[in-house]
Write a structure and sequence with these properties.
The protein is an alpha/beta fold. 25% of the residues lie in helices and 28% in strands. The chain has helices spanning 11-22, 57-71, 122-127, 136-139, 155-164, 183-190, 287-308; strands at residues 2-7, 28-32, 74-77, 81-86, 92-97, 102-110, 114-116, 132-133, 147-151, 170-174, 195-197, 201-209, 215-222, 227-231, 234-237, 241-243, 273-275.
Length: 310
């Protein structure tokens, strides 16, 4: 019988693990196949406090994991939360892993994060972290004074273009992925002198490498079938993100964008089930917000456990 199971090995889950372990609970962390989550894929982090020279995402994730382990957290690599079971009274009774294991527990902190929507290209996977990014606010500063492109036309893409414009020499918006652009954001982006829209583009079909196996260009094809190459040092794929919350089924209410709906301190409405991190964050999905959210949800779970103890 586990006291707390933490689902997710990203910054929210690791922060929750640290807080639970310091309370003497020794939580079990289902960290999936990518320890550190999306943080481990970030090339460099410059906006997390305490690192004046910045820190690699994988390095920061490894340090968080080591800290949680030193304090008593236990990890199951390769296992993720697939669903959960409740007792007769409706409270959490077990976590079910994607391998089919049933882990009895009194509380779950779900920090399962989000997954960015991708273009689906082999070259995209190959160049991830070498010019291809999924977070303008995370990586934009590394392309200061250089030519970049943004894939997308919805609010995330236009906000990325507005963020990148003061930093980069030029920003080319490739309006792929569908969706209706917010008129205010679209007008603001079109008014900037170094932002250009590739209005005829129907899709991005290839990314090409240059020196050092880094991105040098994106190949776009228009509706008539003509292709052209857009030189760029960076491509920000801003097609939005999907919360990784399939494990919740229909037992936890969702917001319109798919996030879990939570009350104060990460409570989901299911006794013993708390959620944290990007799966619930409505505004700013960053390492600092994930860490704070995980700490709050773990503390709420600990109080829930204490209240249940005779």
């Amino acid at each position: 019988m586990e006291k707390i199971v933490i689902a997710g090995g990203g910054p929210a889950g690791l922060s929750a693990a640290i807080y639970a372990a310091r309370a003497g609970v020794s939580p079990l962390v289902l960290e999936g196949v990518a320890p550190g989550g999306q943080l481990a894929q970030a090339g460099r982090i410059d906006n997390y406090p305490g690192f004046p020279d910045g820190i690699g995402g994988a390095e920061l994730a490894a340090a968080m994991r080591a800290q949680a382990g030193r304090l008593g957290a236990r990890f199951r690599f390769g296992e993720e939360l697939a669903s959960f079971q409740v007792a007769a009274g409706g409270a959490v009774a077990a976590a079910v892993t994607d391998g089919g294991d049933i882990v009895e527990t009194a509380a779950i902190v779900a920090a399962t994060g989000t997954a960015p929507r991708r273009l689906g290209l082999d070259s995209e996977r190959r160049l991830a972290g070498r010019g291809v990014s999924y977070c303008a606010t995370c990586d934009g500063a590394f392309f200061r004074g250089r030519a970049v492109a943004v894939a997308g036309i919805g609010a995330p893409a236009l906000r990325a273009a507005l963020y990148l414009a003061p930093l980069c020499a030029s920003v080319t918006v490739v309006p792929v992925g569908g969706g209706t652009p917010p008129r205010t954001l679209l007008a603001q982006a079109r008014a900037l002198p170094n932002v250009r829209f590739e209005d005829g583009a129907a899709r991005i079909e290839e990314l090409r490498e240059g020196d050092g196996r880094r991105l040098r260009a994106a190949v776009v094809r228009d509706a008539a079938g003509a292709a052209r190459e857009i030189p760029c040092d960076g491509l920000f794929v801003e097609l939005g993100a999907e919360p990784s919350v399939a494990w919740a089924g229909d037992r936890v209410p969702r917001e319109a964008d798919g996030r879990l709906r939570v009350a104060a301190r990460g409570a989901t409405g299911v006794p013993g089930l708390f959620a944290a991190g990007d799966a619930v964050e409505p505004f700013l999905r960053q390492v600092c917000t994930a860490v704070a959210s995980g700490a709050v949800a773990a503390t709420a779970a600990l109080r829930y456990l204490r209240a249940r103890t005779p």
